[in-house]
Predict the structure.
Amino acid sequence: MVFSIFMNSNISFQSRINFVNPKEFSEMKIKNRSKFIQWYEDSPLYVKNGIFDTADIKTCTGGLFTDGVSKALGFHWLDDIKNYFCLDRMCDDVFNVFQNSDINGLIVGGKDLKYRQYSLKITDKVIDYFKKKVKHLTIFQEHNTFFGQTSYLYILKNDTCTICAGYTDKNGYYQNVQNLKDLKRCYKRIIIADNDVICFNGVEVPREKLKQFYRKSK
């Protein structure tokens, strides 16, 4: 996400979300020695660090929030009954790190599977909470296919979020998100904060091609 430009002593965000292939994603993680976010029951609620990543968000809900300058945190929450009934407290704890709505955020995850009954419930509840609290929020909600998944890497120093995501096509082959068509096939619902730009392998998508997804900031 490139998240920071200063104007009149206030932060004015311009976010860059860059989708890359698995090879490039792996190389970036190794190069930057990022702190990995776990999703087990005894894992920390979130990771607050200058560089962090998480992998294989499928039925879980994950994301990140940053002021683009000095604070950033990432999370990856398991879709279980315990987290479902603790979500209000969990979301409060994340938001209280910043105590400011003028931050940038990204939420991703969820999947409609009968045997993961809390997946969409948790994703929907997290999104509803932060849509009311966070001014600049991009959402990639509900993986469309059984094998759909998302991994991300965030680096505060250059304020960039890199995403590696994939889905299964109509022939059952796994495809990585490499263009706008792939993006729409990967996620059921896409909302992009009006200050964000989407890139594929470093190439920005013209804003007019994304206008159906843009959400005006509060």
Remarks:
- The first strand starts at residue 5 and ends at 7.
- The first helix runs from residue 22 to 32.
- The helical segments are 22-32, 81-95, 119-133, 180-186.
- Residues 38 and 76 are 7 Å apart (CA to CA).
